[in-house]
Amino acid sequence: MFIGGEWTRGSAGRTFEIVNPANNETIARAYEGNLDDVNRAVAAARDAFDNGPWRHMTGKERGEILRRTAEMIRADATKFAFLEAADVGKTFHRTLGYSIPQAIDGFEYHAARAREIEGKVRAVPERNFFNYRTWEPMGVVAEILPWNGPFMMACQKVSAILAAGNTVVIKPAQDGSLSNLELAKLFAKAGFPPGVVNIVAGPGRALGARLVEHPDVNMVSLTGGTETGKQVIRQSADTVKKVALELGGKNPHIVFEDADLPQAVQWAIWAAYADQGQICVSGSRLLLHKPIYEEFLDLFVNKVSALKIGDTMSETTDVGPVITRRHEQSILDYIAIGKQEGAVTILGGNKVTSAPFDRGNFIEPTIFTGVTPDMRIAQEEIFGPVVTVTMFNDDAEAVRIANGVKYGLAGGIWTQDIDRALRTASQLQAGQIYLNSYYSPAIVDSPAEGHKESGIGGTGVHKYMQEKTVFVKLKLD
Prior knowledge:
Number of helices: 14
Oligomer: single chain
């Protein structure tokens, strides 16, 4: 672990295995943190914020260190892509071509953003008064990360936390720790003062709960499941700390009759099967307008059936493994539930049992048709390579089906009618909408907040800051 600027073993001396989901072989071991280690990390972050130089440095000075970190990530891009692929099953070429550039962009963007955190001066009705408002760092931030994109998310979120002048304790997911621990080496080299960045790995529930409840932690930021987010809210009540939650999604991907079908099919595949569907914004609910239903479905099935399941390190692989045996079984259970509910599996639906993939956690890309909005597979987040297909008759029905879940994270819309596109986007109860694509090229520039049970807590660098207002009485008499 990395605490107070130094590498340290866990207090209890226990370790946990880091397992490659492609073959379930142990590829590394890491020290397992416990509550004492969390307390040490929080104490280091607290001291660094209260007594260290970080919060008092100019935005330019903080930005220079953040930019230096970005340059080191770029130099080690291949290594980080390899570690991410080996640890969580992402394909190497997608990680190198998409996730790593997004991670670098996070540090570069927030390096510049650190210099332009502005306040505001407001007029007040009373004579000889003026009012100014400023943004200040929260203090010690606990950032609890998920396993499905540990490196990119760590870079984007931690760079924002640090640009704002906070110190941080990072808690990576136990099933996604490897790249975060390697990232700590760069934090040590980049010039961050001791205690500004701390990383404690280990079992999530106990360590996360301690961070949430700790009185010296000013803010908790979590990316994870909705039920975990609800638990964080409950656990934070006694200390009334700021909580930011980026939670689950069951995202609609709407294709209207006037869509560019070949383009829509390609983006629907990306939306549904990138990273094996283990992305919170995955377009897992495909809603097809009745006039183009059959044509789109034929194209979609033909293209999805050609996806190659394979070695995560191969450039020709489209679909890798899901994260663990336990998660694999959860996905297979949902597939069985869909069949019991009356949905029809027209493609996939099985664990891959041919060698050598039988040693890993591989599931065939799966397509369900005949899915009604009330089915569990259309309501609950499966978080795997499973797409449900539902037909709609008109615009109003499309919006009604799209909004008919407890989540409100993202959504996609395909149409060549700009009025329909903007009208539908305004009607969708979701924080991130894609029109005629399913891609966010500038997510750090324009971050999104989940609606409904998909999240709370703000966006961007201000997510990790607090506002102060000051009223000044001037002696002008």
